[in-house]
Amino acid sequence: MTETTENNAAPLDFIREMVAADMKSGKYNGKVVTRFPPEPNGYLHIGHAKAICLDFGIAAENNGVCHLRFDDTNPTKEDTEYEESIQNDVRWLGFDFGKHLYYASDYFERMYECAVELIKRGKAYVCDLSAEEWDEYRGDLANPGKESPGRKRSVEENLDLFARMRAGEFEDGAKVLRARIDMASPNINMRDPVIYRIRRAHHFRHGDKWCIYPMYDYAHPLEDAFEGVTHSLCTLEFEIHRPLYDWVLDSLGYKFPDRPQQTEFSRLNLTYTVMSKRKLLQLVKENHVHGWDDPRMPTLSGMRRRGIPASAIRRLCKMVGVTKFDGLTDVAVLEYCVREELNSSAPRFLAVLDPLKVTITNFPEEGVEPLDAVNNPEDPAAGCRKLAFTRELYIEKSDFMMEPPKGYFRLAPGKEVRLRYGYFIKCEEVVTDAAGNVIELKCSFDPATRGGSAPDGRKVKGTIHWVSASESVPAEVRLYDRLFSVEQPGADGVDFLTQLNADSLKVVTGRLEPELAKLASGSTVQFERLGYFTVDPDSAPGKPVFNRTVTLKDSWGNKLNAAKNGK
To answer: What is the pLDDT of residue 559?
Structure first.
């Protein structure tokens, strides 16, 4: 298991304190069994990562096990595609569930038997009310509900009707099985909630075997109990559902140490994105993004394709911590974690994304001079590579200005600049097209300045990157930015789609060191001065495609600060 016990050195959060107390008291006979129970109805996102790190982390820290369990109780939305992607994402994040892979649907027969037992104990009944009728019967926060006519049915009649529901005698929505709890409960979830409904839908694992399906709030505690889960960790929105979780287990006679315990913690929410599966699905289906693994998406598959390392996500989860209060984490924190992880590991290369031709007039036309370039200054063992210095080069257009302002230390007419790993060059002539656009710079180089210093002691403040025109390769480079233009898309009832960032993707044709065209898909490097970039799966021999993972600096924050200051 890779780095799954990173939290060991951190101070104990309230959940870890609880688990430690349970271990000390012998509440579960020294066992710790957790579970991560996603529904296979979409791809995992960064919000799920916190739950994964917590569930698997706590198990690992206490010599326990964590189950990966698919909560496949809603056949209309679930699919094998999602199931496979979830398994891949959990493994990629650095966690191994081994043989502990489970499916809620494998317990359908046991769940049915438990429902029969609840009927026999007078704790469940068949209800004929439609959803619209139930809205009237249920009441509201100010008023108690009124009892369904089905409450008066005998145990025998309820058993018969429930069996006939399973046999497919009734239409979808004609009947449901309800828990008999308290129609006056201040918690509306406890006002005789549905625990089984009729739904004729093809299940991706069990076909048409079942036409009745358990509701999540009923199935969840039973799944935990069947598997011997000790600590059932959920996000805060499930706190109001905990009384029902306990009621199901209490009503069926589950007692400690065999009974699981639900505990809630805050979700991980990030700025400039959405976490709702419904909204993410809408983005995909309406082609606002290019699939679930679009690098702008907060999905783990999207982040992997963008080049974000799993270690950075685990670092983020550790930094955010485990609390009882929902908050909003600035996406800049994630970007910081990414930079911290990649700075030490990513090899350096030169790339020019907006090329401007430079001709070195005093360098031989066919000449090629090899220059030494450091592969990673953070890792001396990474060594050096050779760069080809030739008569014709490319630099970034932004590294030249005809009329530079004060403090501009890059190239300008008559000015000198240092080429990274190379020589001082001086702009002698500017070539423009008919519209006045700069299309070429004619420069001279000083052969005595190889390596970046002048024997005569003259100083040059600016250093820019470059590539050889003849020795570099063209590449498609996708410049990804934040998907939304506001911190909290959809807040205050605004249509979140109106807040999409129009500049979230720009595609350019750059020029790269030739070695970059040989890298395998998923390889991440630093383009010096530009940021971290990853080879996209769309790459093909002779046609490399790179995705920008993150810039070297928080350019977005700089933009926002400038806007606030009226600049």
So the answer is: 52
